[in-house]
Amino acid sequence: MSSKELFNLEGKVALVTGASSGLGSHFAETLSNAGAKIILAARRTEELKKIQSNLSQESFVIELDVNDKDSVLDLLKEVQILEKKIDILVNNAGISDPKKFKEMSEESWLRIIETNLNGAFRVAKYVADSMINSKTKGSIINIASILGLRVGLNLTSYASAKAALIQLTKSMALELARSDIRVNALAPGYILTDINKDFFSTKEGKGYIKNIPMQRLGLKRELDGALLLLSSDASSFMTGSTLVVDGGHLVNPL
């Protein structure tokens, strides 16, 4: 099999959660360009429709609230109505609420854990059930973060949720391997997006960039290789792994 064939996603259906902006919308475009049909899922369906217009392959917009079990199950029902089966899940939906630990409210803590950990579990659980029922050789990619492997200031809840997500990835991989479902995590470092570009142009933001060995932010397209690897048959013997794409940030000396 040629390298081109290894990364080919033609005939595959990929569900991308949190696809209405940021990395999620980029992931959808990347998978579409590789030949996959895309299910764009998020709460903001109007934004999803805008993204849909830029995709090269067949795509579908489905409203999804990862914090609502019924919403997840309704999405899977809609996928069945479309006569599709999910081959790839990019479990990307997430939020952040930067606060110092001593100033954090319990409500803020619970909101981040609910979306970034429980929401990811909820979607992965029911998509995995669907894959097993349809005898699909699936790939689940949980979008983690280097903050799940090493902490940063003012991000207690986010780092805790991402650390737990990495451990969830390993547990899922162990239990789902015999069902031909691979589960891996992608852990980006600081990637430039429309959401964070203003912060990284400030003095404080530039200070963060100085701690990256490559002395720059990553670009969204620099996640494409890792995403396509985990989505395709090129990683057919990989499960339980966490791929870090961070410009060397994690190996920066303490």
- Principal-axes geometry comes out as globular
% residues in beta strands: 5-15%
Low-confidence region ranges: none
What structural class results from the helix and strand content?
alpha/beta
Number of strands: 7
CATH fold-level label:
Rossmann fold
Straight-line distance between termini: 43 Å
Kindly give the count of domains. 1
Main beta-sheet annotation: 7 strands, parallel
Q: What is the second-level CATH architecture?
A: 3-Layer(aba) Sandwich
Determine the fraction of residues in helical runs and give it as a percent range: 40-55%
Strand numbers in spatial order across the main sheet: 3-2-1-4-5-6-7
Specify the CATH class.
Alpha Beta
What name goes with the CATH superfamily? NAD(P)-binding Rossmann-like Domain
Provide the gyration radius in Å.
Answer: 18 Å
Counting H and I runs of at least 4 residues, what is the number of helices?
9
Features:
Rossmann fold, alpha/beta, seven-stranded parallel sheet, 254 residues, 9 helices
Overview of the structural elements:
The chain has 254 residues and is α/β, with parallel strands linked by helices. It has a single domain (3-245), classed as Rossmann fold, CATH 3.40.50. The chain contains nine helices and seven strands; from the N terminus they run αβαβαβαβαβαβαααβ. It has helices at 3-6, 22-33, 45-52, 69-81, 106-133, 156-176, 197-200, 203-210, 224-231, and strands at residues 13-17, 37-42, 59-63, 88-91, 138-143, 181-188, 242-245. The protein has a seven-stranded parallel β-sheet with strand order 3-2-1-4-5-6-7, with helices on both faces. α3 (45-52) links the parallel β2 (37-42) and β3. α5 (106-133) runs parallel beside α6 (156-176). The radius of gyration is 18 Å and the shape is globular.
